[in-house]
Amino acid sequence: MDSAADGVVIADFEAGLGTVIRMGDEPVDVVVLVTEPTVKSLEVARRAADLVHRQQLGRLVVTANRLRDDEDLSRVRAAFPGIEVVIIPDEPAIVAAERRGVAPFDAAPDSPGVRALVALADSLGPACSGRG
To answer: How many domains does the chain contain in total?
Structure first.
């Protein structure tokens, strides 16, 4: 078994376009772009999405973080037509867990935000969800 070919690597990079630009032409399985429903965040994520498509880097999933209402959702969907969008609601339980220095999954596993993050991991495959 080739562990490099069969393994899963999840990386959390700095915000902005730099990481996508430096990825080169080597594709990955999935690129998860995280955006918030602000003009600046959506613009940076849209540019990154364009690069991912242009360079054919892999499946693109846009994660809309801290959504408060239907207006936020509409703004994100308008910025990414035809692209898979995962919704993560603005979640006080996640903020409270971060302030206490604990994992949101441990602090509030049944909260809507944590359930959305678990669903995202599940959609990426069993190895990403920790259940495979």
So the answer is: 2
